[in-house]
Amino acid sequence: MSKHLAIASILAIGLGILLSVILWRISRMSGPGSKITTIYLCGDSHSGKTKLYYSLISSTASPTSFDTVKTVDGAVYTGCIDSLPGKLLRLCDIPSDQRCCSPEVLASSPAVIIYIAIKGCDNTNIMTLMETHQSTLKLFLILAVGITRHEVLNSVSSFISANQNIDPEDVTIPTFLQVAEVSSVDELPSTVIEAIRKTICK
Questions:
Q1: Where do the TM regions start and end (predicted)?
Q2: Rounded to two decimals, what is the model's pTM?
């Protein structure tokens, strides 16, 4: 009898410890003291940003294409991406024209902006995002799809030079700006997760 009582006591203690750990993890992830990192996913129309959005928030297969006209108000997800446990993220799919977003979607300034740049992308959008949110940005990651990192940096540098009327050699690229070459859209989620992990886990 005493043996069964001892086993029951050990199991009860173990279960109590397990529940305590689970509750502690939940409070760390979603409690009032937890910090939410807001991330904007941006890019020109048909750049694949909405597909990337769904790839990040769900492990299930997502549609291969989206009607950008019907998603102009943006989509917002707040939670933990599986690959980034313990990190509370507010992930926003931002239309190429931010004026289409409701105030609620743009309510939080981003700590991270992910921009998918394709051939012929609009540098004006990149510069506007950078200038508007530079005070809160930890990372502005440009994912170069079908173009080289050198092309993107040259393009950004030329835009800054013309916009600020300074010599191209005097242009300083912001420290929070990073460019990653991506050979295919399948690489986008893993590239983004790795960059976010390095940024918000510092």
A1: 6-26
A2: 0.75
